[in-house]
Amino acid sequence: MNLISVFAIAAGLAMDSFAVSVSSGTTKIKGKFRAAVVIGLVFGFFQGFMPVLGWVLGINFTGFILDYAHWIAFFLLFIIGIKMIEESDEKLIDIQNPYVLLLLGIATSIDALAVGLSFAFLNESVLFPAFIIGIFTFVISFFGVYLGDKLQSSTGRYATFIGGIILILIGVKIVLENSL
């Protein structure tokens, strides 16, 4: 697989993480730089790890994973989105909570698992693309947190509500893409 194709895949996979990072940046986070690094690392790790996992599982469990992965991603994003909406006029969701970050990391990287499965079917190497995907996702997620912070300062408390809606819409998009 050529480098241009790898970067195109990385960009496509990173978009969900970028959108969630922007939503995360709209919440009140102490230590924005540290939070941006942690969010970028979590999203980058899962986006880089899931293709490898998909590649490994590709031989044995392809049908099961492909049949249900989009529903798992939808469920996780929907629950977190609803929580953000509910808390938009109260206190903001704690994006620095390790459990919330773990769920978001998994939910936004389910499609990367499917990419790993496709690499297994095509008999393509996965390690280099997974590394590029992880690095690309880290960078775009890091800057997404700062973009969200800028949006929050201009949209106020409604930014968290909008962020919750975005997460739900990403989940719906994943289900629709995999149901058609």
Automatic annotation (TrEMBL):
Coiled-coil zones: none
Pfam family, one: Mntp
GO MF annotation, one: manganese ion transmembrane transporter activity
Intracellular or extracellular location(s): Cell membrane
Highest taxon in the source lineage: Archaea
Membrane topology reported for the UniProt record: Multi-pass membrane protein
Keyword field contains Cell inner membrane: no
Record-level GO cellular component terms: plasma membrane
Membrane-crossing residue ranges in chain numbering: 6-23, 35-56, 68-86, 98-121, 127-146, 158-176
This protein's UniProt keywords: Cell membrane, Ion transport, Manganese, Membrane, Transmembrane, Transmembrane helix, Transport
Family of this protein: Belongs to the MntP (TC 9.B.29) family.
Matching HAMAP family: MntP_pump (MF_01521)
Functional description taken from the UniProt entry: Probably functions as a manganese efflux pump.
Protein name (Swiss-Prot/TrEMBL): Putative manganese efflux pump MntP
Species of the source: Methanomicrobium antiquum
